[in-house]
Design a protein that fits this description.
- It is a single chain.
- By secondary structure, the chain is an alpha+beta fold.
- It has 2 domains: 380 residues, no CATH class; 48 residues, no CATH class.
- Strands 2, 3, 4, 5, 8 and 9 form a 6-stranded mixed β-sheet that branches. Strands 16-17-18-20-19 form a 5-stranded mixed barrel. The chain has a 3-stranded mixed β-sheet with strand order 1-10-11, with helices on one face.
- It is globular.
Length: 507
């Protein structure tokens, strides 16, 4: 299978502690223990998920000593809160519906000169003792893994979904990024410090977008849209790029998994721009101080850009001379089958991402090509290991203190840890989706489907994108890219996670 963006439907997002609820949203479903799944009704799919757990060593429940240390840390932080008091600032969160591990909260304001963004990030280091049981387990897990009906979290739920999570109406320790922007959305001054904060409201993307679409959103949402739009325009002006892959959603309907394409709403990009901005500020701090860890990606090879340009021409998609690949990709419609074919091919432009430590002089390569600037991960410490260390580095730099020795020592180890964690997360993501795709198509063997060839692999067959159901699968035979075809299921092995189509007839 090829690169995809996969999102678990809200019914498949494990809930957190009982009694928690979102502002204006229905209460979440009853909680399940971390590392366990709601077993699918299809026995073959159940076996497929069991095999995925074994094949990729998906972490199960936390060891008692890890749970105990996390619970003790939560109690200790609650009893002795530290940091400056910013509980009077009305922070709010925006996350997928049902999420309980809330890393980020924001407060936005504006005056005649520009904007002020205060971005609170969960203070995970306050709960993790260097060299302790929670620290060691986090280094083993590296990042939270999401599977249908379950998650394998980076930290015990008592920490990630309760004590450290920026849940509404709870006082929590946080790293607060205080960023002053000019009227064009460019950062002029920045600092980060530890503080106690309290979120006053919790929203999901659908709620935010509904208010924006209404034409009379609350002030904080209107500011988010203004700042997000300015930052997105700045990204494009720098030559940044984002691949508009269709987002494939797995959901549970009447006891059966279903697949569909979910178009992301603009509010998601507005929210993401705040995180990207913070990561850029963090990277600048690290480079100025000569210490930290960057998220880097090389620029696409000129030959790869030329290849995608030729493919656009072959598919009849206009790519004006002089337009950079980032701006061009912005024009593609992920719901247009012809554009989907080109989007599939454009993955060659986004390869080679990794983590680069800064230990003294600046490394040779410091830029993330998609961001078109130096960039660092610091906004998701509940779900990603590297962010915890990036936050500690930046807080020390901002206050003029030495970076702790244990943090410096970790910087050289983190690239390989994160590389292995990213590989496993991507493999689990692909495997789960492949299994669900096979299960969906196994029950529809007698049907025919409309699709489009998005990649011709010669003797190895081709890739065909179906729209309903939202499946990308191998098809027998060689067929030109961009050709619409009618196919049926030749093979669908759920346990082996293999789907093979055959062409009934070109359109």
């Amino acid at each position: 299978m090829a690169l995809r963006r996969v999102r678990l439907g809200d019914h498949l997002r494990p809930a957190g502690p009982a009694g928690a609820s979102a502002d204006g949203a229905a209460p979440p479903e009853p909680p399940r223990p971390a590392g366990t799944a709601s077993a699918p009704a299809d026995p073959a799919l159940r076996r497929a998920f069991e095999r995925i757990h074994e094949e990729f060593d998906v972490p199960g429940p936390f060891a008692p000593e890890v749970e105990a240390e996390a619970a003790a840390a939560v109690a200790a932080v609650a009893a002795s809160p530290a940091g400056r008091d910013e509980t009077a600032v009305p922070f709010f969160t925006i996350d997928p519906a049902g999420s309980m591990d809330l890393d980020q909260a924001m407060h936005l304001s504006a005056d005649g000169h520009g904007f002020r963004v205060r971005y609170a990030i969960a203070d995970v280091p306050a709960f993790v003792r260097p060299g302790g049981a929670v620290d060691a387990e986090a280094r083993r897990r590296v990042e939270t893994l999401y599977l249908p009906g379950e998650r394998a979290p980076l930290h015990p739920p008592v920490l990630a979904e309760d004590g450290a999570s920026l849940l509404p109406d709870r006082v929590r320790p946080a790293f607060v990024w205080d960023l002053l922007l000019d009227a064009a959305g460019e950062v002029r001054t920045a600092q980060v410090y530890r503080a106690r904060v309290r979120s006053v409201a919790r929203f999901d993307y659908t709620q935010v977008q509904a208010e924006l679409d209404s034409g009379s959103p609350r002030e904080e949402f209107a500011l988010l849209a203004r700042i997000g739009t300015l930052r997105h325009e700045g990204l494009r002006a720098r030559g940044g790029a984002d691949l508009p892959m269709p987002e494939q959603e797995i959901d549970l309907v009447d006891g059966r998994y279903v697949l569909s394409f979910r178009p992301p709403v603009p509010a998601e990009d507005h929210n993401a721009q705040i995180s990207l901005m913070t990561g850029m500020v963090a990277a600048d701090m690290m480079l100025s101080a000569g210490v930290g860890i960057l998220r880097t990606m090389p620029a696409p090879e000129p030959g790869a850009v030329a290849q995608v340009r030729r493919q656009a021409q072959a598919l009849g998609i206009a790519w004006p001379e002089g337009m950079g690949h980032g701006r061009f990709l912005d024009t593609l419609d992920r719901e247009d089958p012809t554009h989907l074919a080109l989007i599939q091919e454009a993955t060659v432009l986004f390869r080679g991402a990794g983590y680069t430590p800064v230990l003294g002089s600046a490394p040779e390569h410091v830029t993330h090509a998609a961001v078109a600037a130096p960039y660092a991960h610091v906004t998701a410490p509940l779900r990603r290991l590297v962010d915890r260390f990036g936050l500690l580095v930046c807080a020390a730099i901002s206050e003029g203190s030495p970076v702790p020795d244990d943090v410096r020592a970790a910087l050289a180890e983190l690239p390989e840890l994160m590389r292995a964690g990213d590989r496993r997360a991507a493999a689990v993501d692909r495997a789960c989706t492949d299994a669900v795709e096979a299960a969906v198509l196994a029950s529809r063997r007698d049907e025919e489907f409309d699709g489009m060839v998005v990649d011709d692999r010669g003797e190895k067959g081709c890739l065909v994108q179906l729209v309903d159901p939202a499946v990308l699968a191998t098809c027998r035979g060689s067929h030109p890219e961009g050709v619409r075809v009618r196919v049926r299921v030749a093979r669908a092995d759920v346990v082996e996670r293999r789907v093979e189509l055959e062409v009934v007839a070109p359109e």
